[in-house]
Amino acid sequence: MLLTNCSTDPNKNWKFHSLRALDAKLLITPLSSLSSLVSNLKHLRYLNLSHCTVEVLPDSICLLHHLLILDVRYCHYLYKLPKHIIRLKGLRHLYIQGCSRLSHLPPNIRQLTCLKTLSNFIVDRRRGCQLDELNHLNLGGYLHISNLDKVRRPKEARFANLSGKRNLKRLHLSWNTNENESEDNAKDVLEALAPSTGLTELNIQGYKGSERFKSCQLISSLASMR
């Protein structure tokens, strides 16, 4: 059963306990209403909250143990995902691109071992938020790795294991402005990422060592694939 264009009156007694898919994009609702909306949908597989005005996703989402797809794309006010999102052990697709206020992910994303799509991984220096979280995830499709200026050593970049992600087709790598990062470190991090040769699209943004592209082994290896 798919429910779309739903009302979010928190006083409404929801009866859709067997609902499998909920398309609530463009939703304008307070957090309390959203929490009430999903708390009883224990069998939900697909939840689309894209383009919503919510700032924080309710913790009740972490009780949706059958959830396979969570889509919060272009939620421009969203700045925080649920801390315990890793309890969604069966989650396969997490779409979070376009959430411009989202500055970090919950720690230990590596525990979502069924994950096939993670549209944005935000590097952070905190434990459980570094590139090694990607190591054993069999990701495919599109991946954006942002905040690469926070990677201190090329060794950390290798732990992302992009070369082992054969199903990855589109890769976006981005750096923020960081005066403390040297050109050599940016170049070494870029080379150490070493994505799979199956890529069809590579987008590099904010790379501080841009004038040294020609000497970068990563660019050379990708060019040789064509």
From TrEMBL:
Transmembrane segments: none
InterPro entries recorded: Leu-rich_rpt (IPR001611), LRR_dom_sf (IPR032675), LRR_R13L1-DRL21 (IPR056789)
Alphabetical list of Gene3D superfamilies matching this protein: Ribonuclease Inhibitor
Boundaries of every R13L1/DRL21-like LRR repeat region domain copy: 131-215
Pfam families reported for this sequence: LRR_1 (PF00560), LRR_R13L1-DRL21 (PF25019)
PANTHER family noted in UniProt: LEUCINE-RICH REPEAT-CONTAINING PROTEIN 57, OS09G0267800 PROTEIN
Name used for this protein in its record: R13L1/DRL21-like LRR repeat region domain-containing protein
Origin organism lineage: Eukaryota, Viridiplantae, Streptophyta, Embryophyta, Tracheophyta
